[in-house]
Amino acid sequence: DDFSLILNTNVVGPAMLTKALYAHLRSAKGEEPSKVVAIGAGVGSVSTNKAGGWYSYRISKTALNALMKNLAIEGARNNILAFTLYPEMVDTAFATPYVKGNPYDQLRTSEETAERMMELIDSYGPPDSGRFVNIWSRE
């Protein structure tokens, strides 16, 4: 069903891929750390949920946040960083049905979004591991 598909896509897939690659991501302290990055969504926040609904998507993104936080804690033992980047709403076919209710000042292209994400990924280090970051405000 859709619920299982969404959970598999947003949580199980990233967890299984990270598990399969984990031995290759590990490195000694002092070496360049590996970085595991997830794409987050504001609807995954438990504390800011004021609207309800979107059960499968919301639950999957909340679970992804928990996965990434846990990975950041355990990854620190193996020089692996983990953080979640939140791009707000991006101008894609997926977002088209929701654009009318977009609460953000502007809708950015996927190219702009990818460029900002790569900039942040390159600049982030150990103090950033475990963070959920809005890529535009950097909060």
TrEMBL record:
Q: Cellular component terms, GO, for this chain's entry?
A: cytoplasm
The terms under GO molecular function for this entry are:
oxidoreductase activity
What's the protein called, per UniProt?
Answer: Protochlorophyllide reductase
Species name for this entry? Polarella glacialis
